[in-house]
């Protein structure tokens, strides 16, 4: 990555990877669009909006706008900003607003802000909700440059945080695997799964079924395993 991402970020780890910026962004796209593959606490995610960013100043403006938005409903803001940024190209970067859907219940859903800076091969993640325990509550980021994948953290981070250990032991290995996967070296684009039912509707039904039948399933669990883990987590 060329240059420093700024004083708000602290470099925590770097990894040698035999890949390219194209594969870095392909791996990031998999994680952004299908976070549940690596995070088993999630049913999936819903992309609420995307804003093409024209330059660094605009990136900071959009970042502050999204992070300081007080209303839990982003619909009006997204519609307004998508219209305002409609003419921009995607060459500098993209801001993404996504809803992260928890397996636990709807109160654990989170809004995550993702900022892509293509000029620096830098992507950052911000959790807009209180700590729900399903995604890291502190800002974190990844960059790529000269054959190295770098992990950065922002304010509110602690080494002992379980989310940090999840990033190190689960997320980073997955990203590296996706980056180095031969399939990612082709010209195939990463595409989202085709769905007959929206992930939002599926989440509502999933949690309703657990609330309705979960207790009964736990009571009649026939295996010598923890029923709460399999019924309520898996």
Automatic annotation (TrEMBL):
Its EC number is 2.1.1.211. GO terms for molecular function: tRNA(Ser) (uridine(44)-2'-O-)-methyltransferase activity. Transmembrane segments: none annotated. Keywords: Cytoplasm, Methyltransferase, S-adenosyl-L-methionine, Transferase, tRNA processing. Its main location: cytoplasm. It comes from the Eukaryota. GO terms for cellular component: cytoplasm. It catalyses: uridine(44) in tRNA(Ser) + S-adenosyl-L-methionine = 2'-O-methyluridine(44) in tRNA(Ser) + S-adenosyl-L-homocysteine + H(+). Belongs to the TRM44 family. Adenosyl-L-methionine (AdoMet)-dependent tRNA (uracil-O(2)-)-methyltransferase. This is tRNA (uracil-O(2)-)-methyltransferase. It comes from Homalodisca liturata.
